[in-house]
Amino acid sequence: MTRWVALAGAVLLVGAAVAMMLLLQRPSAATSAEQAASLAAELRCPDCESLSVAESRTASATAIRQEIASQLAAGRTPDQIRESFVARYGEWILLEPRGAPLWLVAPLAIVAGGGLLAWWLIGRRRTPAPDASQPLSDAERARLASELERLDG
Amino acid sequence: MGRSMLRWLLVPLLVVPVGWLLFTGLGRDPREIPSPLVGKPLPVLSGTTLDGSPFSSAELAGKPALINVWASWCPPCVSEHPLLLDTARRFGGELQMVGVLYQDTADGARAFESRYGEGGWPDVDDASGTIAVALGVTAPPETFFVDAHGVVRYRHVGPLTAEVLDEQLAALGLQP
Amino acid sequence: MIPTLGHVAVVAGLAATLFAAASFVLGARRGDAELVGVARRAMYAAFGLAAVASAAMVYSLLTHDFSVLYVVRNNATTTPPFYSVISLWAALQGSILFWTLLATGWAALVLHRFRDRAPVLMPWVGMTLALGAAFFFAVMTWPGDPFLRTSPVAAEGNGPNALLQNHPFMGLHPPLLYLGYTGLAVPFAFGVAALITRRTDEEWLGIVRRWTLVPWTFLTAGIVAGAWWSYEVLGWGGYWAWDPVENAALLPWLTATAFIHSSMVAERRGTLRVWSQLLVVLTFWLTLFGTFLTRSGVVASVHSFTASGIGGWFLGALVVTLAAGTALIVWRLPDLGDRRPAGEPISRESAFLFNNVLFLAISLTVLVGTLYPLAVEAVSGQKVSVGAPWFNRVGAPAFVALLFLMGVGPALPWGGASAATLRRRFGRPVGAALAVVLLAVVMGMREVAPLAAIGFAVFVVLVMADEVVRGAAARGRTRGERAGTAAWQLVTRNRRRYGGYLVHAGICVMAVAIAISATLGTEVTATLRPGEELTIGAYRLRHERLVVQALPDDARVRETRAELTLSGPQSGAVTTALRDYPSSTTAIATPSVRSSLGEDLYVTLIGYDPDSQSVTLHVFINPLVGWIWLGGAIVAAGAVFAIWPERRRIPTAAVSAAAG
User: Does any CB of chain B come closer than 8 Å to the CB of residue A46?
Assistant: First the structure.
């Protein structure tokens, strides 16, 4: 019985994680200022380390923000704008790599790890506990003593 | 044998790929980014030169060109400047040189040229960085080598060296 | 003279550590306690030598001895004494020296504390620590000599890296982080010793748990202090950029945290021995990996020191450690097996193990994200980036799930739980959390991340509070203690557990603050002439004047300062500046941060025009950021509470007499 509850719990956990991941997808930007901001956050600032164009105030980041604004004003879509920067700077400019679904790493690791753990826990339960008849280890004995003492104390 | 020995395979299976991956990274400069413009036609660049005349990259067609992105506030630009002056002297008629003044003021650029030498090639004002963004510049100095058909052949990041300059100019068909 | 002394100390340190390693091995094999004692003293000597070398370097920096290349590159005659001293860890060679000092310090401390204990394990622990220290001494003897001379003697040096002399936090963040990094060698050494001597029993586990917790505390504090430094200095309004080297500090923290949790199950159940060993080896390996990333120039990062020949040495150490660690575990695999059960699927044990799954999944994700650009380039030659948006999107759900487990785990009983227990323990916290989330939605909050963080944090804190209150009440009933006394008695009698709760509470505070500051901030950029104002939220900022002058304590640094007047919820004079350092081509921002309980007003100067005296400001309202640092302090306090040695037990009668 508890086994099924555990499995249901694990499935629920994984489901929640995946749902959360989908919910945390970048929000759809409505106004052009929001679009510009979200595009800037996706592009790497060329002359700083590990910051996006949105976060940086360096010369080239400022120039790229202006370029984004003027391309948006010219009616180009975010995809076209992204593409135009890739054509000049290379894939390197995108802070989220395209192509390989790299983000799958996290859910796959959680599902695989969770599955392995569930299998291990359940497998262990079936085998009769071998230490039931064994004498206590020293640490267990010490712990028992201290717990008992605590109860008395 | 069998399973008990097989488990030793784990060690090389883990160590070799990790070691190899990190080893390949060792010799590289993480700041060197290849330009996707190489092999493609030069994007159309337009602006105003420091002396006020309009500039368009369309004018460059027909002859090989060298486009140098620089700024007066950039120390490596000082160190490569003599090489550019020398190039202008040697190939004056056959090579079109253009400076792109990156996020700088006209005054700064004039002071730079009066101090380190005036080469005679036009400098396009790019205070807003529009041209630099069109070229995918990360930081000055960067130099683009463009052939007679208007195709970008090479992009050099950082100060030019005599070797790079000779090699790339030769590739454009300019022999000293 | 003094630099020569430093160099001699380094070479002698190499000799001492190699001698110690050999003597530990010989002593262990022959069962010669005296030889082991000699080896231990050699390690004390190595610590002394590292201290002498560090003192020599600090002296050279303080006296601006420009015959030393490191001093020329990282110091100038105008550098204030404080920044001269902390320049010890401001660049590559000096930081290796400082690292060696801390590593040998930990080694000496451990060997001293265990001089009469664990006689079978200790020689091998000593050997491992000695070899680790020998590596660093060797690096300083050959490729990374901090005392390399330059001739002719320079008249003036370059001064410290501009970013590192801009804020006193630089004196705090690296030492804490390094104490954490170097300390994690201790559990690794015990792991190696246990594997070699086949003593992978409760004894080593107990020692290793404790000796992981101490460096873990430093590592945690170091990471939080680093985030704080980045916030106060870098001027982009944020505190965590998922920079490769930040990730490298996070990775061992994640695996060490996983170990701290799984070791409780291991201790209780006598199982999970392979897993514990794996985590200990992995954690140590990741600390080395972090130093490799910083020091090899493999990745571009704010933190990377200039590329140098040292990269190859660190790569060698990484490969050797990984090979030796896995080989040792594989070798002892037959001894490590057990068939003991680890509790019911719904029990505290399984919650702790699911926590391990999440921690390891996050570690893997961060590792893959950090190394992916390297892998792509190795395979296809293409340059790609993996940055903050990716890490936030992929990592956030797993962190939120961890938050959830943080509440579930401690509330589940060991062994297994009945449905009634679950209802009793979770009913009210779940209800309260849902109510708080609902309230937040009604009040207009729509972002998923902060809502989830708030909900889970409330749940976790209530579950813990409920337990403490129930425990204290029970104590009060049975012994007639007053509520305060009962609670204090309860928590001090099980420091490990309640210290852990305090750590969890701190993490909850941080989680909520991070989620809210990341999603609910506002910012504005504006160019102002003198006398003009900008408005952001309820604040008004007026530009008074632009001042350009040299710094009073370092004339070579020119500061361009906007003097502003703030009014609104906070008021007063605000100055924010750009500093031009001779050693840096770009000006360094000196943001002004006005903190209040609810939010920070963060003002940076990003440009100015001397002719019109106008300034361009980037102003942020960052809600709850102060609570991140406060949460970090709570975490550290909880960890210290947990590590604090338990009071010696006074005979029961005396306790009752005192209490009564």
Answer: yes
